[in-house]
Predict the 3D structure of the following.
Amino acid sequence: MTITDFEAITRKIYEYAYGIDGRDWDLYRSIFADQIDVDFSSYNQAPAASVAADDWVEGVKPLFTGLDATQHSMSNPLVDIDEADADTNQTARCRMYMRAAHFLDDWPEPEFTIGGYYDNRLVRVDNRWQINAVTLIVRWRRGDKKLMTEATRRGSSST
């Protein structure tokens, strides 16, 4: 079976969701280049930053370990592949709708869900696509965001 660039790129974004939801940290780490630009400012007002992928993965573990369950749904991928030249690796952009539901069963309002889209940049390294930039654009929220703070607290004490 031959996998097209479109399929490889969209699979990488779906693996983002599977890695987080399944708490499969090896899978989650494998989707990223060693250094990634992360911009979640529309969610948490923190400035965009460039971080080592290992540090990013370690940083999200407490939150997701502290939650009872999550489900990240992705759809409507728009993929644009840039032309490569002899001096650079090929790059691509993938924008994809997302809905992320987070659950803490014993919390007064046990679900916090956000919707919007991811705008990701990828680079082809050794004939493999890897995410090197993640931007989350939140368009709507439902539920109590404090659930996320509590989940991080719980996850930090268990890791």
